[in-house]
Amino acid sequence: MNITFVGGGNMATALIGGMLQRGFAASQLRVVEVIPEARERLTREFGVHATGDLSEGIAAGDVLVLAVKPQQLREVAGQMRPLRSAQLVISIAAGIRAGDLARWLGGHGNLVRAMPNTPALIQAGITGLYALPEVSAAGRAGAESILGAVGETLWLGEESMMDAVTAVSGSGPAYVFYFIEALQEAALAQGFGAGESRRLALATFLGAARLAAASPEEAGVLRARVTSKGGTTERAVGVLEASRVKQHVIDAVAAAAERSRELGDELGKA
User: Fold this and answer.
1) CA-CA distances (angstroms) from residue 96 to 101, 205, 233, 249, 264?
2) How confident is the model at residue 154, as a pLDDT?
3) CA 78 to chain CA centroid, nearest Å
4) Rg (CA), the chain
5) CB count, 10 Å around CB of 74?
6) Edge-to-edge strand order for the sheet containing 49-51?
7) Is this model's pTM higher than 0.90 or not?
8) What is the pLDDT of residues 146-177, one digit of tens each?
9) Cβ neighbours of residue 113 under 8 Å, at least 6 residues apart?
């Protein structure tokens, strides 16, 4: 399986690095990138062939991973026609619906839409995947092997759920960073230095996340076990509950999902 990445930015770099670690050969991978310095970096770091010629890259690929900015995808797709029916297209461009991209590609339906998140940069991401009906079982397996190189994968039965994936896991790292930032500021307010505050906040989040991942119990059960009656944690959680922090997080995710739907409408016009 030969794979061509159209676009050589951060997410493409993460995928290439993860795939090489998972046993893909550099000779299987090509990158189409318009910036010469980026091409040189990709070749130097990974030993992959990088070119500025879109036609060359497309002709060589059994799988084409579209990793350009969403605003550029319609123009790029127009330059890719016609494709061979057997070529699998994987789009990691946020907000672009599979039907719109298939239309821009001249009706090419062998297409998977993917929504990875930024922890993919350290092979710790999770990616939502949706395949059009024309994609074969082998095509789905190929997409999973590529995106699975940088973390977990989750197949969606309906494309509308991609907006929810975008809101929960796509935007989710920002919510986690927000809470880490808040805990650091709280530690500073209690008299710790900046370095100590960072260590305490990061170790707490990392440890709690690892404990939750290792435990069969739900997060609510784990929280209750830490919350002794009449203790310090109970008082802290009481403040969070009184401020409706949990509901605000739910509302924030709903707002992100709604914005994802809006972007799909805007980017898919014409």
Assistant:
1) 7, 33, 43, 25, 6
2) 98
3) 25
4) 21
5) 18
6) 49-51, 29-32, 3-6, 63-66, 88-91, 111-115, 125-131, 151-155
7) yes
8) 999 999 999 999 999 999 999 999 999 999 99
9) 90, 91, 96, 97, 98, 101, 129, 130, 131, 159, 162
